[in-house]
Amino acid sequence: MMDDKTILFEKTPVPKAVMQLAVPTILSSLIMVIYNIADTYFVGMMNNPVQNAAVTLAAPVLLAFNAVNNLFGVGSSSMMSRALGRKDFEAVRRSSAFGFYCALFFGVLFSVLCTVGLNPLLVLLGADANTMDATAGYLKWTVLFGAAPAILNVVMAYMVRSEGSSLHASIGTMSGCLLNIILDPIFILPWGLDMGAAGAGLATFLSNCAACVYFFALLRVRRKTTFVCINPKKFSFQKYIVLGVCGVGIPAAIQNLLNVTGMTILNNFTSAYGAQAVATMGITQKINMVPCRLPWAFPRASCLSSATTMPAATTGE
Length: 317
Prior knowledge:
The protein has 317 residues and is mainly α. It has helices spanning 4-11, 14-44, 49-85, 89-116, 118-125, 132-144, 147-162, 166-188, 197-221, 239-271, 275-293, 297-314.
């Protein structure tokens, strides 16, 4: 007897399957857009352009996380979807373990490198004497402490979504975003902890940790029914796993690295005009995310649906 996921991937018409996968993803994207705007909104309520400038100057480092997310999140989820389609469940487990532990390693590496080279990094990002301390305070929580949970919660969402659990992936992502929105005013504003940009970073760190806890709990509860595996025994550098993950993930990661380079250069040019100009640019970039973010959901869901449906169709199953 077929389970719901098998029916979704092998029997459901592609348009219907795409919609079933896309709707929770779109909701998740909407919440993420609101979260990004809310973060800037609450920092802006302090009427201090230096605080908003700090968030903007740190943005390229957080955007660099997406390169790792795409490398091991997109790469491993694509590999997992294709393996599910041909019913190679061992490859699914090994792909997810490879993606998880590589993401964890690079998250820790991000933290170590940024901690050791914090001052050169701040100069590279375009921070000056006015914005240096506020930018360092924001990076402390989002990168020095928070790189690993920020990367892992996105990568695990990709992997959970790859086997059709789009709703659970979106719940994990949305729960972190909603918690962030709740914590932002408490940590940022004068009536709360009055931490400014550092408070926004702390809220982001805690919300990413909460999202990770959700995914760990989900995998624990569904350990007998899910093929997503984070057992270290399944981690290996088998050639077909590495090539399968990196073959898809590297091109996606390169795109993000180019965006990081462009944003860093732009911030450096803008910082010559002062903190207010940098803050203005950052607010504009957040607003620009609204029309740019939502189209992401449909091709993502379409890729997952077709990747798991097509191999089964070619084998006559």
